[in-house]
Write a structure and sequence with these properties.
four-stranded antiparallel sheet; 0% helix
Amino acid sequence: QVQLVESGGGLVQAGGSLRLSCAASGRTFSSYTMGWFRQAPGKEREFVAAITGSGRNTYYTDSVKGRVTISRDNARNTVYLQVNSLKPEDTAVYYCAASFHTITTISGSYDYWGQGTQVTVSS
């Protein structure tokens, strides 16, 4: 069982930056692919980024490439999402998730989810 707790969300002006964190419980954190998803009001949850257990491989959805960096610190059981040049359309609840599978964009492939952290970008 893995428990995930996100933090770092908040209200930020367009053009600003945020770093989201996701702290995981458990002793096998480095075994999991970690992903970030987001869900805007009235929309389906969408994939943002993922990183393999070792941290060597990452993958991003096209809409955030160049603005978002996913990273992890396995010694701290934590995964991060740095989001720069924030836009109002980035407003959403951001979720981290853990998967036993190789890197994947499919939410159904993730086995554990955090409760989410709200990011609101004002124009």
